[in-house]
Design goal:
The chain is α/β, with parallel strands linked by helices. Helix content is 30%, strand content 24%. The N and C termini lie close together (12 Å). Bound molecules: adenosine-5'-triphosphate and magnesium ion.
């Protein structure tokens, strides 16, 4: 656990970069710092590895003040990743990744084996080992940066806008890989970003900083979206925070119906449904939609011209946001719920889905808590 206790940083000239900040970054979890530019996020991050020493207050790692430790020794246990990766331009990818293992005296062979293993972990082809940073794309450079920070297997990782210099598609890939990696590695991560969507996707806890180095709120993404502490946080999260909140409401709480789900071999004379019918095959896989008033006079349902199914959602694992998205994109206005094997469990319309959403409770107490 990383603990900030009343941390203030005042630079010569009077800028207050951090103003009496107290917070905790739990072990094995991702804590994200977001907020206005100049709000003190980078400064806060750097007090952890002593690149910045507070004017007053303390930063503790597992209960021990970081100022009791020599910076070099402290930093060996703390990986650091920055924007544009910060790679050494004159060293190969492999040697960049092996920087810390070399520094701490591993032999060359062991350090290089470790670097190769990490390249695979972060999704880099082994053939890239001998290239130089300028021969890589921005996304590949960021991967090298992450691999380098992981090389000495530090329990703590500090990441300062590590994915912000790449395009949105690569960025989403890096985020997904980062979450997969964290699932295996369980590092204590402090991650700085400007992007509230990135914060919500990656953070177990989100700390919002405001100009003047003030921590305004620290909460889980769900609670931040449901109960922003003040107008500043609400404004920062954005006007569609209601929609974003739906990402945390499980679709399993929405009522499903299978009344209008019919097999393709159903004779049309026997169809009593009005409105849209979802036609499924013998294995209950969705084939398409047909409107009851557009059915042919005879034959089987499957012979009718079907409208495409549209996106489906997983009734167990998806959120109401995904389900609503599916409903909006469906020709029938109804979303098709499937199970893990792709079989239809039922359908829900937009009304059913929104009924699953409870209004956010008002903020009970001060939003800033430990
Ligand atoms: N070495 C320094 N000397 C003087 N002032 C500094 C120094 N480093 C940072 N500051 C000031 O401290 C404040 C906080 O800066 P910091 O870099 O922590 O903000 P940030 O939240 O990371 O901003 P950004 O989102 O733009 O990266 C800013 O006003 C900045 O100008
Ligand atoms: Mg910064």
């Amino acid at each position: 656990m990383i603990t900030f206790e009343g941390v203030t940083k005042r630079y010569p000239g009077g800028t207050v970069a951090l103003d009496d900040v107290s917070l905790e970054c739990p072990t094995g979890r991702i804590t994200v710092f977001v907020g206005t530019s100049g709000g003190g996020k980078t400064t806060a991050l750097r007090t952890i590895n002593r690149m910045v020493d507070p004017t007053s207050g303390r930063v503790l790692i597992d209960g021990r003040d970081v100022r009791e430790r020599r910076p070099a020794e402290l930093r060996r246990g703390i990986g650091y990743v920055i924007q544009h990766a910060g790679l050494f331009p004159h060293r190969t990818v492999l040697d960049n990744i092996a920087t810390v293992p070399y520094l701490v005296g591993w032999n060359k062979k062991k350090a290089r084996e470790r670097a190769l293993e990490l390249m695979e972990r972060v999704g880099l082809e082994p053939a890239m080992a001998k290239r130089y940073p300028f021969q890589l794309s921005g996304g590949q450079q960021q991967r090298v940066g992450v691999a380098r920070a992981l090389a000495a297997d530090p329990p703590i990782m500090l990441m300062d806008e590590p994915f912000s210099a790449v395009d949105p598609v690569v960025r989403a890939e890096l985020q997904d890989e980062f979450l997969r990696l964290q699932d295996e590695l369980h590092k204590t991560i402090v991650f700085v970003t400007h992007d509230i969507d990135e914060a919500i996707k990656l953070g177990d806890r989100i700390a919002v900083f405001r100009t003047g180095g003030r921590l305004v709120q620290i909460d889980s993404p769900e609670d931040l979206l449901a109960r922003p502490a003040d107008d500043f946080v609400a404004g920062f999260i954005g006007r569609d925070r209601g929609i974003r909140r739906l990402s945390f409401v499980p679709a399993s709480s929405a009522p499903l119906t299978d009344r209008d789900v019919l097999p393709a071999d159903t004779p049309v004379e026997r169809v009593t449904a009005v409105g849209w019918i979802l036609v499924v095959d013998a294995g209950r896989r969705p084939l398409g939609w047909v409107s009851a008033d557009a059915l042919p006079a005879s034959g089987a349902l499957g012979d009718a011209r079907l409208a495409p199914v549209g996106p489906t959602f997983d009734a167990e694992t998806d959120s109401v946001r995904a389900a609503l998205d599916a409903a909006i994109l469906s020709p029938s206005g109804r979303a098709v719920a499937v199970d893990g094997s792709g079989q239809v469990v039922g359908v829900a319309d937009q009304h059913d889905l929104t009924a699953a959403i409870r209004p956010a409770a008002p903020l009970a107490k001060d939003g800033v808590s430990g």
